[in-house]
Write a structure and sequence with these properties.
Elements (H helix, E strand, L loop, with lengths): L1 H35 L4 H22 L11 H27 L2 H7 L2 H12 L10 H22 L4 E3 L21 H30 L3 H23 L12 H28 L1 H5 L4 H13 L4 E2 H27 L14 H12 L1
Antiparallel strand pairs: 1-2
Family: Belongs to the drug/metabolite transporter (DMT) superfamily. Plant drug/metabolite exporter (P-DME) (TC 2.A.7.4) family.
Membrane topology: Multi-pass membrane protein
GO molecular function: transmembrane transporter activity
């Protein structure tokens, strides 16, 4: 029983987080491809949230008998609506920014999320910061190292290692190169993405706060999704009054909407709710620097992009930073040198609740 609980608390969250980051980057790439074919970003967000809510509603209702459903107070409803407004706003900012840039830039700036989240967690006293605590120092230093590694990976290319047109011998003959912005639209996108990821950090912190009072991930995600769906539809109707923009055919746009609605807005949000309830916001967001590593890896494997020395160095630095954060978190839980985290005795494994219903949907 102890080994099984250790697997559930330590190993499984890491696997799920990494898998979720891979899915997020894939969905962003698919979205970018769909917008290049003319899909409107506001229409996309509205449809994606609607799909996620439509699928989640019967799942939540059908599983009420198999899980403990907490009573819903007016305060929880208001906080859930605020969570939906923050999440929907961040989505709108993020997708608009990607229209002006690319998923790679989004994944690079996403490395600000761990820093934002840690600062907010300390501000709201969800994390205890002590200069004499090894776990606190490890989390701070690890976050800084991860962010530094992400910026190395983003802005330093270096000589190429794998290229269809070159050989490994070119490693010693290519000059060092740095990535430069193409035009002012990238700067505008960077500002939007910075605001987006600050809202994302606030979204994580608020979600942890709500789950301490209302430990029902499925119901929370449903309330959040309904709010976000209503807001996104209103924004889309005001921004895109042209009825023709709302017509979606059997093309890449439809695939992107359905995939984002199911894997992003539905499964992704439920996974995140389960993870922040189990491990906390700081732990979950510390893995976000992996997004750019995943982005570079997918580009090298599936798109034929060149793999550079800077990518290897940056990925190595990020790995060191993530290890430091995880070590700090594990030490914190073992020694108990920070504020007590919410009890996980009544947390029901997410996959046990959702998997039977998802099998029926498939």
């Amino acid at each position: 029983m102890t080994r099984r609980w250790s697997f559930y608390m330590d190993f499984l969250p890491v696997v799920v987080i990494i898998g979720n980051e891979c899915i997020d980057m894939s969905l962003l790439t698919l979205y970018k491809a769909a917008t290049l074919q003319g899909m409107n970003n506001h229409v996309f967000i509205a449809y994606a949230y609607a799909v996620g809510t439509f699928v989640l509603l019967p799942i939540t209702l059908f599983t009420t008998r198999s899980r403990v459903v907490s009573p819903i107070s007016f305060s929880i409803i208001c906080k859930s609506m605020l969570l939906g407004a923050i999440g929907c706003s961040s989505q709108i900012l993020g997708y608009v920014a990607i229209n002006y840039s690319s998923p790679t830039l989004a994944s690079a700036i996403a490395n600000l999320v761990p820093a934002f989240t840690f600062i907010l967690a300390v501000t709201f006293r969800m994390e205890k910061l002590s200069a004499k605590s090894r776990s606190s120092n490890a989390k701070v230093i690890g976050s800084i190292i991860s962010i530094a590694g992400a910026f190395v990976l983003t802005f330093y290319k270096g000589p190429s290692i794998i290229n269809a047109d070159t050989h490994l011998t070119s490693l010693f003959h290519q000059p060092i190169a740095f990535i430069k912005s193409v035009d002012s639209s990238w700067a505008f996108a960077g500002i939007l993405l910075t605001l987006d990821y600050f809202l994302v950090s606030l979204w994580y912190i608020l979600q942890v706060h709500i789950l301490k009072e209302f430990p029902d991930e499925l119901t929370l995600v449903l309330l959040y999704s309904i709010t976000a769906t209503i807001i996104s539809i209103v924004v889309a109707l005001l921004s895109v009054p042209n009825a023709s923009a709302w017509k979606i055919g059997l093309n890449l746009s439809l695939i992107s909407i359905v995939s984002s609605g199911i894997f992003g807005k539905l499964i992704g949000n439920m996974v995140v709710a389960w993870l922040v309830h189990l491990k906390g916001a700081v732990y979950v967001t510390s893995f976000i620097p992996l997004q750019i590593v995943i982005s570079v890896a997918l580009g090298a494997i599936f798109l034929g992009d060149t793999l550079h020395v800077g990518s290897i160095i940056g990925a190595t630095i990020i790995s060191i930073g993530l290890y430091a954060v995880m070590w700090g978190k594990v030490t914190e839980e073992d020694v108990g040198d920070t504020m007590e985290l919410p009890s996980t005795e009544n947390i029901e494994p997410l996959l046990q609740v959702v998997e039977p219903k998802l099998m029926k949907i498939k």
